[in-house]
Write a structure and sequence with these properties.
about 500 residues; alpha/beta; Rossmann fold
């Protein structure tokens, strides 16, 4: 039974006890007709309560006879001509107390709804869902919601629904089968903070945070990415649309919270509890299945994961040329495979925000697909690539922060290691390698092939020192904290 429903039922019991006191007074004042009418109301209420509980609990509820006994006592009281008000109230209270005790034993469950939109971003919610799903006091629902590509004029283009792309172990409720407004979930988790302000994609408007706000007492945004360094503290402050409407914001470090001026976001909205994305690395990565075709292509060779982000695409006028140069550098590296993973929204971003290079981008993808030493990763999840790979090449990306928790090295195509001294750092990922330090792709491949990673022992400890719950317990901590806050306001 929903907790809200049980709370309402227990509130009705309190009202009925108050009615018994009024009935006592009516009988003592010889206002038998008024007492009779109120007794009829009590009986009708008891019948309705019993039927409501049975409809929800069915045969698991064994207390229906207590409601029947109460109704019989109400009837006997109504037809009695000599019972005193005190005796009537005592009898009614006794029978109602038995029915109330039976109802009190019914397990109350919170309705906890998760609204992911892209399967590739499910990792930002999964460990919280796992905790809620394992909690006997919760009914956890995963409801992937539709989203739209944005056209260059920002109007809606093609609609996408990725419910079939989620892991098999996640039970999915189709969004057409669950009405948020009528169900009024106790808690809703989202990982899209943009509402109508995203120029690449948009979730369906009925799932914007200011719409969801109307239908739940607890709306929670969980950061879907990991950010770590900024030019200065002020640069780290973000003000997404959802920040105005959610009740809580789950972030990985105290540094993320302290980026924000106190007058921009109420500090009590922030919950510094870590990231489910880190939970996945710690708890789930070893369980990932590697596609057989990858294993066959790699054939025991070292694998370097190449991550291409949206930011780099938008900021580099010659991005395609840079990618061609990187591709060519693997022409003669036959003892190593490059596993290229374009951001899942990269193609949509090109179509929406850089349509002038769309043909060039398609040609690049085709060239990558034909290269003897390159595999293109189009999986919804990045984790098979993380598990298989021995190292990472990337520009600034949350994947770099996650990858640090594997202990494997990364080569960053932007920044240099000394930048740490002049930046506001929330998560220390600087125990890696940087092209601007003079480390070339050839140098990095040599480090990987010959296992000469000098930062291996310090990488995890450096980034863990900044991060809340780096031991993989973020999801369970978020679940318990949100439950506690909800119960306090409920």
């Amino acid at each position: 039974m929903r907790k809200a429903m049980k709370d309402n039922i227990m509130g009705v019991f309190r009202t009925m006890y108050e009615a018994h006191g009024i009935i006592r007074q009516y009988i003592n004042d010889d206002m038998r007709e008024n007492a009779y009418e109120l007794l009829c109301d009590c009986q009708n209420t008891a019948v309705e309560l019993g039927n409501t509980i049975y409809e929800v609990e069915n045969d698991s509820f064994d207390g229906l006879h207590f409601f029947e006994e109460y109704c019989e006592t109400v009837y006997q009281t109504a037809i009695s001509t000599d019972i005193s008000g005190e005796a009537a109230q005592s009898l009614l209270d006794e029978k109602l107390n038995a029915a109330e005790a039976a109802a009190e034993k019914i397990p109350a469950k919170l309705e906890v709804v998760f609204l992911p939109y892209k399967a590739s971003m499910w990792d930002s919610l999964e460990s919280i869902w796992r905790a809620a799903d394992a909690d006997p006091e919760c009914n956890a629902r995963v409801i992937p919601i539709p989203y739209y590509d944005r056209k260059p004029d920002h109007s809606f283009g093609m609609m996408h629904y990725e419910g079939k792309d989620f892991p098999d172990y996640v039970p999915i409720t189709h969004y057409t089968e669950y009405d948020i407004e009528s169900n009024q979930p106790d808690i809703i988790y989202i990982h899209n903070p943009y509402d109508d302000c995203n120029y690449v994609t948009s979730v369906a408007p009925e799932y914007y945070s200011f719409e969801l706000r109307k239908h739940t007492p607890m709306l929670v945004y969980v950061l879907y990415y990991l950010s770590s360094s900024y030019k200065d503290r002020q640069s780290g402050a973000v003000m997404y649309s959802a920040y105005n409407h959610v009740d809580k914001i789950v972030i990985p470090t105290q540094g993320h919270k302290e980026c924000h001026p106190r007058d921009s976001v109420p500090y009590d909205k922030f919950m510094v509890l870590g990231s489910p994305k880190i939970d996945y690395i710690v708890n789930q990565l070893d369980k990932e299945e590697i596609p057989a075709e990858w294993t066959e292509r790699c054939n025991g060779r070292k694998v370097i994961l190449m991550n291409s982000t949206i930011g780099q695409l938008l900021n580099d006028e010659y991005w395609c040329n840079s990618m061609y140069d990187l591709m060519k550098s693997f022409d003669d590296i036959d003892d190593c495979i490059l596993l290229w993973r374009p951001h899942p929204l990269l193609k949509a971003t090109v179509s929406s925000m850089r349509p002038d290079i769309e043909k060039e981008y398609d040609n690049l993808v085709a060239a990558m697909a034909d290269h003897k030493n390159i595999i293109i990763d189009t999986n919804p999840s990045v984790y098979p690539a993380m598990k298989l790979s021995d190292a990472l090449i990337s520009d600034y990306s949350s994947i770099v922060m996650q990858y640090a928790f594997t202990g494997k090295p990364a080569l960053l195509t932007v920044q240099k290691s000394s930048d740490k001294d002049n930046m506001y750092v929330c998560m220390d990922y600087f125990q890696n390698y940087f092209m601007e330090d003079g480390v070339t792709i050839k140098d990095f491949v040599d480090i990987v092939i010959n296992d000469r990673d000098e930062f291996k022992n310090t990488r995890i400890s450096a980034i863990s020192a900044d991060t809340a719950n780096p031991d993989g317990s973020c999801g369970s901590k978020v679940h318990e904290e949100i439950k506690s806050v909800f119960n306090a306001i409920g």
